[in-house]
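PROTOCOL LOG
Step 1. Enter all chains and additional molecules of the complex.
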Amino acid sequence: MTLLSLRGITKRFDGKPVLAGIDLDVARGERIAILGASGSGKSTLLRCVNFLELPDEGSVALDGETVGRRERELTRVRQRIGMVFQQFNLFPHMTALDNVMEGLVTVRRVAKAAARERAERELARVGLADKAAAYPAHLSGGQKQRVAIARAVAMDPELLLFDEPTSALDPELVGEVLGVIRALADEGRTMLLVTHELGFAYHVATRVIFLAEGRIHESGAPDEVLKAPRRERTQAFLRRHKEFSL
Amino acid sequence: MYQWDFAPVAANWPLLAQGLLNTLKVTGVALVVGLALGLLFALMRLSRHRGLSWPAGFVIEVFRTTPPLVQLFWFFFALPLIAGIAMTPYIAACVTFSIQSAAFFAEVFRGGIQSIERGQWEAARAIGMTEAQAMKRIVLPQAVKRMIPAFMERAIELMKTTTLVATISYADLLFAANEISQKTFRPLETFTVAALMYFVVITAFSLLARRFERRLAISGEATVH
Amino acid sequence: MHQWDFASVLANREALLVGAIGTLRIFAICLVAGLSLGFIVGLGRYSRNRLFYWPATAFTEFFRNTPVLVQILWFYFALPILVPFSIGPLAAAAMGISLNSAAFSAEIFRGGIQSIDRGQWDGARAIGMTAGQAMRRIVLPQALRRMTPALTNRAIEIFKMSTLASAVAYVELLQQGKLIASLNFNPIEAYTAVAVIFFVCLWPLVQLTYVLERRLGRSE
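Step 2. Run joint prediction.
Step 3. Record the structure below.
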């Protein structure tokens, strides 16, 4: 069953097209890795899905319902879509626990006690039960990103967006974050994942799409796109990422 | 050689004390009203609706670029004739300095709000917050912490500016000093004492402000001015 | 509803002109005196020599922490008792405003000089410059660029402070406004006119500081 459906998504920055008409259907339970060179529009595509960028043209439909542009509709849609950022974007004036509780209490209007219980569970799930009272400034990059993931997951999103979740991390911290994402994948959650970790994409994604010049250049199962790419630009991109091992 | 004699000034200490109290009263009122009004101006100025941002911008610019003494005279002598309300020096002072400090506070608020990284807004929006929720829960709490030094600096400026009310005969510390000096024929002693009283109060306040600022700096928070 | 009548103000434009000249005169005096004294005091605050540092610090603390109007009245009413010559309204007001501006601009100069990377001093000394040469040729030019917005702001403040001279009856714009208001019973128009004159003079300057600040923010 189709959860998310993008039609003709177009986005220009200063007249320059970044996305030139993207069509994409995401079924429930699918995990799509989005690859592409920097500037190919990967992040912009992800941000168009939850309207952090407003597409210039095209439509986004969730569960078959096209999303309008009124603030009410946008906030409702964003509650159903979780997002994890490259720079974590934790709220520095709140503890890890408060960060996870914030959306439940302020947006979902969940009672404080219930929200706290839920947030504690989410923190435990990402292995940070002992850091509940810590402020973001006292957490490592990997810990910050795990709190950010807990914050997104606590809202029970039907779709999770990951925007290069490990690109800002020191190499030795990448593993702990990928492990958490992997566990979420194993639960059968629907995900869109922009990443440079090709090996991870290969093992976790159910489908891989390769973006070039604002269009979907190649799309298919990980085995096809990553091991036997048909298009020349995909091949060139993969050659530049030689270090990736399957 | 001039013979200093502080006895006549000391004899009039209740006048000076009452004057200092009145100075603090006007400062306090203008500070509280100015902060609330300043936040309102800042939010209006940041609004995308021109019907809100332009009037706010106009008031802010006018009150930042005209001399406070001219503003005070305008409110004291001119406003009663336009609005038909009776103006006391105290009300004129409170109105003038409230709006004036609101104009300055508005720019402090705006600077603080704009200093918050875009990612904070995005993370708030991504969990489904409305713009108002994101402002109230995420952006303002962080911004206010960064603005504290600028607020305190402004508060000190405000206390100094309130001396202008003496020119419209509000019995603040400076006005009291002027009275005493005329009564006792001891201007040198009176004005020296008044200046020292201001110096002590303002210095005490700015020392407190600096200590507070240092504690903020230690906790690793950046500040804006 | 009030009937606005600016004719009575316009009829007194010569009085306003006299006031404008008075404002410009005290502004020019305080700008030059305030900033040059401020520079000297700023160097004192930057100095590691206690003989310079402590007096400069006492000066800035005192004049930053007392209201200008109190200083002006002190110079006008109190100082003449101590000195053998008389002190007029212009002298009293100019002293108060200049000393206050010196204290504030000293902190701008000190901050500006301090903000220059130590490597610049090292580089200058390494090619054989004296401390004076390094300051004049290398550090000051860079620091001045950074200080321009803050110094322009100071100039704007001095312009606004010049109205305080009316408290000792020095003839400047506000004083003339008072005069016109009391002669013609038109305070609304008189004070509005004075406010407009200040706004028109200062608004472009304020915009300039915004531009300078933005340009500086971008280039650093």
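Step 4. Note key features.
Chain C is about 80% helix and 0% strand.
The two ends of chain C are 53 Å apart (CA to CA).
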